[in-house]
Write a structure and sequence with these properties.
This protein has 88 residues and is an alpha/beta fold. Helix content is 43%, strand content 19%.
């Protein structure tokens, strides 16, 4: 059984590296480049894990997290890994 992972990061190099590695491990990946795209992808697919950047255009990672936790009960249980170069 393949698990579905949503990668949300505006750095295309990071996305490509994560996608390549996860695909080699037989995960299905969905890649978006900002939080708004991520929301649409999350709503349209059965996602098991989210890998999320914090600083992105249109909707940052913090807003994305707040939005999904309030949007639907099924999103509240999806684990989120935050990967960022943000120093805080």
């Amino acid at each position: 059984m393949s698990h579905n992972i949503l990668i949300i990061d505006d750095d295309r190099t990071n996305v490509r590296l994560l996608e390549d590695r996860l695909t080699k491990e037989s995960y299905t990946t969905y890649c978006t480049f900002d939080g708004k795209e991520g929301l649409l992808t999350l709503r349209d697919n059965n996602i098991d894990l989210i890998i999320l950047d914090v600083e992105m255009p249109n909707m940052n990672g913090y807003t994305f997290l707040t939005t999904i936790k309030r949007a639907d009960e099924k999103f509240k249980t999806i684990p989120v890994i935050v990967l960022t170069s943000h120093e805080d």
